[in-house]
Predict the structure.
Amino acid sequence: MIPKIDATPRFSYKSDRLKPLRAFCQTIRLGSVSRASEALFVSQPAVTLQLQALEREFGVTLFERSGRRLVPTREGQLLYDMALPLVESLDGLEARFRDKVRGMDGGELKIAANSSTILYLLPKIVENFRARYPEIRLTLHNAITADGTDLLREDAVDLAIGSMVDVPADLNYEPVYRSEQVLITAPDHVLANLPEPTLKDLSPHPLILPPRRQITWRLVDLVFQQNRVAYTVALEVGGWEVIKQYVAMGMGISIVPTICLTDADRERLATQPLSKYFPSRSYGVVVRKGRYLSSQARAFIELIRPNLLAPREYDQPGHSER
């Protein structure tokens, strides 16, 4: 419930629906009245009064508390889904107008992406984008997907690019690339000579994986647990290049998406397909539902879409062999 303030609202709710609906949407997005007030540059009591006015108008409770966060009730979630496109459409009116007037002659585009996406997927797309729109300032924020979606919700970036398994209700995810999971070992490793290694074959050998927060670690854990096979993580380290280097040195084995494998890796690593156990992973574009996308963001997405679910060369048959 919203904290009660014994005061009469100083605005007429029916004559100005945008302010309370904007306060309502920001409170749901940010999880608290205080954060919403900071985002809107108004006082906390003003936000509280606006939320109370909405509850009185609709005759329902719109919020409940979950720990330290305010979360929407069932009715609150319904109102949020209906109100958000309206609020963001009005809030984005000036930006859309100026965008239409200015066209693609300038502006800024901010994208969140993890290091793998920045290193392996985006270079050619960024190169093409810079060639077409040299006046647009492009900023790439290096962040894992979970942090990238937080930046989206805070309006700190225009879009995020990465891999998602579970898509939150407030986001849209459009898969673009597909990547298989493969085993990598040193060329002289005992597993390199097995035609189709099983999870039990992998079990005795130490794994080198990304940190637990990242999707790869969670997928590996899920697959081994589902198949009731024990495994050992000897080292957690961020960055596929580091992981590949340690594997090549014989410090352990790893399970990686083929997106991170290059032609140069064929000389120092042996790869084995694991599609029998691991589903393919997609990488794609993440945007916040209802948010107006600038022409810069739309142009960048259009450069990605021709590759919709296209596998990279290393994903093709024959490229998972040692």
Summary: The chain has three domains: 18-91, 102-178+282-315, 181-279. The domain at 102-178+282-315 is CATH 3.40.190.10 (D-Maltodextrin-Binding Protein; domain 2). DSSP finds twelve helices and 13 strands in the chain.
